[in-house]
Predict the structure.
Amino acid sequence: MSRGLGRACVQCGLPVSRYNPDTRCSTCARSDATPTIPDRAWRDEEVHRALAAWDFATVVRVVRRRSGLSQKVVRELTGLTQGFISDLERGLKQVNGRETIINLLTGLGLPPDLRPLLLVPFKQTESQRLVDAIDPAMPWTAARMVTSLEAAVGGAMNGLNRRSVIAALGGAGLTQYILQAAVAPPEAVAAARNGISVSDQLLNSLQSTTDALRHADASHGSGNLARAAVAHLKVLLRLLQEGNYNEATGRRLAAVTADTAIQTGWYHFDSGAHIAARNLLLGALRAAHASGDSRLRAGALSFLAIYGYSVGDPRDAVTAARTARQVIADQDAPALHAMLLTRQARGHARLREDRQALAALEEAQALCARGRGEDDPHWLYWINPGEIMGQTGSCLLDLGRPDQAALAFTDARNAFSTDEVRTRAQFLSRAATAQMRAGNVDAGSAIGHEVLALVTGVRSARLDDNLATMLTEAHRYSSAAPARELLERGQIVMEERAA
């Protein structure tokens, strides 16, 4: 019998030519051929400039369009999701992880002769100074603290995604930062210059501004505050560089700077600028260390824990929270310990470590019930039983227990101040999601309408994400009138927020 006689294509079922040794017909073989990026697509001056600047959004956009390929094809070549590629080209996402960068450039077929363009920035003295400043293994001096925060507020670190920066900040680098914050010896913070005298009155005024912004955040969301907070932080950095102060005043100035940098990092994170937030929080951790106030170090670590369980590695969240508790072991601060335990619980919940998450939450509730301690900081005014129960609901939701989560959110809702609109809307959106995941469509839709009535004028990317999750759950019940009405109203609200 002749080879291949009577064979059928394993893909489409049509006959395969007797002269075709493949198991598929030629049509199917051609249709599945892996597309490639033609060399001409890389021969563009704009692409070369983007490679030298590590502007991968421009690289992808220009190379893809010059190749005439779709985002779907780029997804197949690189392994990145199509949604990520779309957001990257529109400037909404960044490529930061070392492995992601390697996969992207390898998948797109970066020509070998263009690889040296990626090394151009390493020849810059300023780049090396920055890499040295943010390396957690280097001594934690006041000068390096100022340099790292200057880079963060100036955006230099956001556009400087160089090999050394990635090594210092990504993955194990974040863990190294966390652990170094607990063991690095303190350095002197003093300046005897001819600049403005840094007085207690001036520091009180600067701290008052930080506190006022903090209170506004819970009501209006961070999108309205990030720019103002950056301007405020720049004033503090200028004083650290040019002010006239002694050691004691310098440490207090570092404390106000740390508190401000923590809040500024949080405003950026809540606005969806995650990389900028991380850079600010790492600088804040340095400033907190320079201040000598272990509670501020714990505060900075608590926000790095949020970064970890939200967009990073949940294991970093657990490490940050545990390290923070060790840092304040000698403090009478039950509220601060309770807050850190909720951060640790969120990390455990994301890792699906039920027992550890629930144990941390139980301890947090017991500590919160004790009330405030002598050493609990003034900036932790928002810890109360409602916050603990709200975080408990979020953990239970992550652990796949929507019934229990819904009960926890019900217990939490009455403890929130009506003035804290963003915070209330955040937890209520999760409560609606929990109800619908538990199959309680009517209750979930009713809470959903309550949320949509609250969010006008509140700018928060995290809240937008929670609203989107809530509406996605409602889609499962779109045949039911309550869910359908919520979806119709939700679409209008989300369009307004996007505009």
